[in-house]
Amino acid sequence: GAAINGLSNVLLRGVTLDPAIFSEEIKATIENSLNHLAKVVSSQGIGQNGSSGSTMEHEFTASPSPIPTEHLDGSRGTTAETADQPETLLVENENGMEQNDNPDVDVTLQPLQAQEIAEAEKTRVEEVCDVDLTSASPKKAKIDEHNSLNSTNGENENSVMAYQMQNFEHHLLQQKTYDSKRKNENQPPTPPTLSLGESSSILPTEQEVPQSNGKESEAENNDEMDTDDGATTSQRETDCCEKEGLMYEVSNLMCGNISGECRIREGHEYYKSESSCYCALCFNSQEINPSDKAEYRHEVHIKNIKEEILRCVLCKRNWHKTCYFEETGIAFTQHKNALFMCTCLIGPLEEMSTAESIKETRLSQDAEKDVNMKLQRMIPNLKKEEHVLIRELSYVQAEAPISRLRFPDYTLKQFKELHGNSVKYRKRTLAAYQKKDGKVQLFLMIFLQQYRDLQKKEGNNWQVLQYLDTVPHAQRPGGMLSGTVMNSVMYQVSRMGYDKAFVWAKPPQQGDDYVFNKHPKSQEMPDLNKLLLFYNKSFEHAEAAGEIENVETFEEYFKNKKPVTLFDIPMFHNSLWDIMINWADYTMKKEKLWKKGTPKHQQIMTVMETYFQKHKEDNFFIGFKNNNDRIDEDEPEIVTVDAGRKPKTVNKIFSSRDEFLTLCVRNNWVFSDERHGAFSTAAITKHYTDMKKKEELAANAPAAPVPPARLTRKRRA
């Protein structure tokens, strides 16, 4: 009923609507109403001069609709129904004026008063077939851009877009009126004059509404809402599901204890300042000045971030972002320019980029093929849906300077003789995906480093497994799948000439996030023994496949190379021994172990020996077989490490574990369960592909003209 009333007001003002936007089921009802409306208008003298008479002869013909039928909300009807829902339609019967709750019943519309009709004739504008967006608001421009996607019928599309653009402002206005009526006001306020870029065909009218019959106040007192179709529904936080008060899980916080091993877990008390935080135990035991302690505030580490609720700007329905994703496949992420429109929007939905759309590289192609061949051999009944997709998200050239920020000053001379003033290396980030229950799940990420001619030795080429992180959202989660992906990626890198590898088995603590933001609580983090078992079994499979020639622990690798000096150990940026040498230097200073007469780089070995014993089995030196199937290495993007602020390219963001994790935390992209994992996978993929497109457009854009240099006179001294 609201649809007919709204349409009648539109048609009276000379706008011809495309019949393709309506569903078949209400065409008959509107046809009957328009016929009756034509008689009413004729009795008022409208259309006698031909200025608006053609509007009344609106015929519903069978024409191809530019709108896919699957995007029409069947429960709410067509666009007109959704857009003008707050309107109140009046009918006349034996008992006088009543509200009509049955849209299938032929109705008699209230005729406009003569004065209103005269005003409408004065302000009536011609039919709008297209809208100039230069003077339109950003929200209208967003709708125009959204509806122009995948258009195949330009003429029909323009009429649909024009109607939607105009109806958007009209709907917002009528919604305010409707909300006001819900607050027990007998009459809604008079709508202000609408304007759409100085040309709008929808003009405000004062609608007569029946007096409140008390249902609104009764429903409000009972915490219920009376809907337009007469149904009564309970007020809920969202319209998508019955779940309320959803909160994001929390991860461990790092305690400021210098050991780096202390954690602040969920439910624990801690003390926080602007720059650091300590668990309660460490805070009380730390040597902190009383004046500095006053800057810390006492807190409890609990869930405090509520899951976002998206409010549609058109129909005002509330959605959880994950519910909307399950309904539409669109991973909507809020930001300051975001405009959320739910399933009520007419027209093609936004197309989401998928992992398959990420450009393949030689490494990702070979690794994906190798992984799936191995899985097929290990699992004879492997399903097609279990295909593992691998994509390379980043490949950059990096440089780590030899400086005091990395090594103690008394070692700089020797390290510069070995490496030069800096060490150049390459960084790669690869991701593995698999479909589960129809949704693509990102379940594994690998961060690699590659060093060519390390220590200025030709052919001394190393690859370093810096980070490997997983979430159990694959179809067959576990060590077999993760180990197979790791072996295949590292073997394909070895074919590029990096036939030596270094791996440090550093287990996370329960509740830690290395790469993925918010692991599932049910995911058990392996301790050191379980992690070593995983690596040893994985390497055994690679040896059996003829990919690895030998695997040695630190103790085995340096068995015949004693005594070991600092300069015998391969130093990889931010890896085990790169870190341990600084811990040894700190220990020497704190415990005042320095002595005169002996070079410090020799004295420090007394502490380093203890670290050699502690880590003799948790780091591996691997040699790959040269099977004479070398492949050429492609060239990476150049990104300088720790050399000032640089533009955040997609390669730079995804090459750094810290930046990737920060990106996920900032946008609340979490992997705490499969539902959120699928959403976050889609959101990350969209962010990645959008950044890639922007970079390609910027690279192909014509260079801006260089302004001529200005000549200035030098001032006299």
TrEMBL record:
Residues 219-229 have a biased composition (Acidic residues). Residues 352-693 form the CBP/p300-type HAT domain. One of its GO terms (cellular component) is transcription regulator complex. One of its GO terms (biological process) is positive regulation of transcription by RNA polymerase II. Residues 196-214 have a biased composition (Polar residues). GO terms for molecular function: chromatin DNA binding; histone acetyltransferase activity; transcription coactivator activity. Residues 45-83, 178-236, 696-717 are annotated as: Disordered. Its EC number is 2.3.1.48. The keyword Secreted does not apply. The lineage of its organism: Eukaryota, Metazoa, Ecdysozoa, Nematoda, Chromadorea. Residues 45-54 have a biased composition (Low complexity). It is an enzyme of class 2 (transferase). This is histone acetyltransferase. It catalyses: L-lysyl-[protein] + acetyl-CoA = N(6)-acetyl-L-lysyl-[protein] + CoA + H(+). It is found in: Nucleus. Keywords: Chromatin regulator, Nucleus, Transcription, Transcription regulation, Transferase. Its main location: nucleus.
